[in-house]
Amino acid sequence: MNLHAKNSSKNVATLSGRNLEPYVRDVMTDLAVGTVFENSIELIGGQKFPDIIAKKYYGIEVKTTTQNHWKTTGNSVLESTRVDNVERIFMLFAKLASPIEFRCRPYEEVLSEIVVTHSPRYLIDMNLEQGKTIFDKIKIPYDTLRKEVNPIRPIVDYYKSKLKPGEELWWMDAENNSKPSSIVIKIWNNLSSKEKHDLKNRAMAYFPELFGNSNDKFGRLAIWFITSEAVVCPNVRDLFTAGGKQDCVIGEKVYKKVPRIFLNLFENMPSIIETITQTSASELSEYWQTCTTEQTKLFDWIDLVAELAKKIKDAKHLDIKQILAELILN
């Protein structure tokens, strides 16, 4: 292919995208004459993976770029369109920027990371060093991973293990992401009052750190708004703290100067309890970053909120655990 590029650079330069595949097929067909591969080269085309097969066992995946680099987005991790019985695949990468050049390497040796479009896909790097593939990182060989029932699970686990505090994965596999995000991104101020109310209550159920004193206690919530709810909120903190302190009557007791975030909590307990009740323990364990069960999840949430509230100076006069228990009983 490099000889073809050198001798017919103007013709090869026009073969971007799908146009290159039949050209490569024809070159392979000519080269196969007199070998065991004669009459076995087949262009698959369409949305199948890989693009060209030989002896119904080997495959060539063709990628092109008109930029002067050796990276591109590859195929889906799930490989749901993989051609049956093809076991050994090679990546043929055409850099059609001047000078035109082709490189070919075993497919699994050039997959460096996972990136996300509409689903997780491999990132191809034709300059990738040995031992630096995504499979080296997750410590699972390519041929083992692709045959897994759920090949996404080890990848999710790997990237989760690399998260810094306050970070979340943009994409999760269907097993753990029961609610797909909307294709439309919405601004908080454009939501209806009911939508705002529901989101705030779910946030208080899912993110108990809101009731603590961490400097970044609204960080995970801001990410969740975007990744799970497709909502951009420029002022997440104000949703829960705007309005200042106020006296609050619970039962026969008056609590003085209660911070606004706890007033929001007390006023919306029925809705918050309903959210916790209707959310599975496994999903809540993910949100709370600690294990809970169906039998104990409500009590576990109360304990989490009460423990975090102890660290807030303006809430030390509040017995949060007692107040929440009283509100639940009432």
Short account of what is shown:
37% of the residues lie in helices and 18% in strands. The strands form 4 sheets. Strands 1-2-3-5-6 form a 5-stranded mixed beta sheet, with helices on one face. The protein has helices at 2-7, 9-13, 20-32, 134-138, 142-145, 152-161, 193-206, 219-227, 236-241, 260-267, 269-278, 281-288, 297-309, 320-329; strands at residues 41-43, 52-54, 58-65, 71-76, 88-95, 101-106, 111-116, 120-125, 186-187, 231-232, 246-250, 253-258.
Detailed description of the structure:
With 330 residues, this protein is of the alpha+beta class. Helices cover 37% and strands 18% of the residues. The protein has helices at 2-7, 9-13, 20-32, 134-138, 142-145, 152-161, 193-206, 219-227, 236-241, 260-267, 269-278, 281-288, 297-309, 320-329, and strands at residues 41-43, 52-54, 58-65, 71-76, 88-95, 101-106, 111-116, 120-125, 186-187, 231-232, 246-250, 253-258. The strands form 4 sheets. It has a 5-stranded mixed beta sheet, covered by helices on one side. A hairpin with a 2-residue loop joins strand 11 (246-250) and strand 12. Helix 7 packs across helix 11 (269-278) and helix 13 (297-309) packs antiparallel against helix 14 (320-329).
DSSP helix fraction: 25-40%
Radius of gyration from CA coordinates? 28 Å
Q: How much of the sequence is in beta strands?
A: 15-25%
Based on DSSP secondary structure assignment, what is the total number of beta strands?
Answer: 12
**Major β-sheet annotation:** 5 strands, mixed
Instruction: Report the mean per-residue pLDDT as an integer.
Output: 88
Oligomeric organization of the protein chains: single chain
Low-pLDDT segments, ≥5 res: 173-178
How many helices in DSSP terms? 14
What is the SS-derived class? alpha+beta
